[in-house]
Amino acid sequence: MKQQGIQKLFLEKKILSKLMLSSRKSLLLTLGLTLSYNVMAQQKNVLFIAVDDLKPIGGCYDRPEVKTPNMDLLAQTGFVFKNNHCQQAVCAPTRASLLTGKRPDYTQIWDLKTQIRDMNPDIRTMPQYFKEKGYQTAAVGKVFDLRSVDSQHDSLSWSKPYVSMKSSNVTGGGYIHETKRVSTECADVPDSVTLDGRVVAESIQLLDELSTDEQPFFLAVGFHKPHLPFVAPKKYWDLYDRDQIQLASYREKPIGAPGYASQPGWEVRSQYDDVPKDFKVPISEEKQKELIHGYYACVSFIDQQIGNLIAYLDEKGLRQNTVIVLWGDHGWHLGDHDMWCKHTNYEQATRSPLMVALGDNYIGQSSSPTEFVDVFPTLCQLAGVETPNDIDGLSLVPLITGELTSLKPHAVSQFHRNKVLMGYAFRNERYRYIIWLKDNYRSNQPYRSELIDAEELYDYTLDPLETTNQATNPEYSSIRQEMLEKAIQFFKEQQ
């Protein structure tokens, strides 16, 4: 059954249980454009929190060795999507996709240099849409990727001038004091002197301004860490004992996978003087532990900044009337498969944090596959705003309310290789199927079986570390065929 059909059936069933609805409201429900009436008395504010390079980690994602008390608290008072995936595991494409509700093959943003409106001049972003619906919209920090929008962070999206925080710290480039290109820095300074500490200060000021207006607001706050370099104040490094930090359990390429599916970690190796630039030279275990330590410190640092921001929202009395959405733009390989990067179609790159909270209305979690294209319609429905019908995602509200336990058969991610190959990953609750297609194929083109260059299949029940590609294993032939048919159906739907 087609995805849109699933949601339509759910909403048609829901109509039968509602009393005294006007014909207009019935129509809107049928189309999936309204919210359950227990939370739609008025339009809600939106606090939209983006975190760069944050993988699903911390207590709320069953990784308690990473200290994230504030995100854990938000998860306990909200709803967590534990099997959520980005559309492409690199900054500009994934953010362009989430913020428009359209997949990369529509936005045509697959790299870090193409501007969204050069490819789609009339495309409508999420904050732009909320602005059209009467919201005040404002942004601080990294929301879009700066390389994919104009100097005002996509000027059509904001009713208030965009607040860029670049170069607001001492030396710029993500460092606090360091002037050399190194991969980590530990500085004994207060949070307030850091780039992301300033993001919180500016966000609080904007909350003061926005909350005095009668219009609802959409405030986007973009944190820069834990993106490389791994820089955080000393007190967050001190939360961890490096001797206790564990290296990735499996540090080899998947057996039977095409060589190009992996990535040698050019981001860390090519930019930082304290990491071997020669891909044939392994990163020492001592340096690996330092990198992991730095990443964990950055995550705990950002967790505190998120806590500071939400605490101020509470102090202003805005929590009950504000939808909070927290997301990290993609995952990150911390040494698994011998990779230190995003830029792949594997689990540690595509699986991404996503949680929402709305007062004390909905609390829970889901392991159903979800995607970043679902964020746009979900926020519309939770905020009580009519949902546009030209976006690719589905509202996740049926999962949040418990009306459905599964919304779609899989999440779809993609990443390219060697300029002519595009890999599409299909992730359901147990398996990941990746199909690599040649000749510059994109999903808006007719699919042909002769385009297949390679296939991958991973079973997370029996092989959670993706050690072995099962695509050619006869024992998995029926699963592989089923996943291939779903992939072909997806390509047809994109036509």
Task: Identify the notable features of this structure and list them briefly.
495 residues; alpha/beta; Alkaline Phosphatase, subunit A; Arylsulfatase, C-terminal domain; 3 domains; seven-stranded mixed beta sheet; four-stranded antiparallel beta sheet; 15 helices; 17% strand; disordered N terminus
Structure description:
- With 495 residues, the protein is an alpha/beta fold.
- The protein has 3 domains: 1-34; 42-401, Alkaline Phosphatase, subunit A (3-Layer(aba) Sandwich), CATH 3.40.720; 411-493, 2-Layer Sandwich (Arylsulfatase, C-terminal domain), CATH 3.30.1120.10.
- The protein is 30% helix and 17% strand.
- It contains 15 helices and 17 strands.
- The chain has helices at residues 3-16, 23-31, 69-76, 91-100, 104-107, 116-119, 126-132, 195-211, 234-237, 266-271, 285-315, 347-350, 375-383, 397-401, 477-493; strands spanning 45-51, 79-81, 84-85, 136-141, 184-187, 217-223, 230-233, 322-328, 333-334, 340-341, 354-358, 364-366, 370-371, 411-417, 421-427, 431-437, 452-459.
- The strands form 5 sheets. It has a 7-stranded mixed beta sheet with strand order 4-6-1-8-11-2-12, sandwiched between helices. A 4-stranded antiparallel beta sheet has the order 14-15-16-17, with helices on one face. It has a two-stranded parallel sheet with strand order 3-13.
- A hairpin with a 5-residue loop joins β9 and β10.
- α1 (3-16) runs antiparallel to α2 and α8 (195-211) packs parallel to α11 (285-315).
- It is globular.
- The model is unreliable at 1-41 (pLDDT under 50).
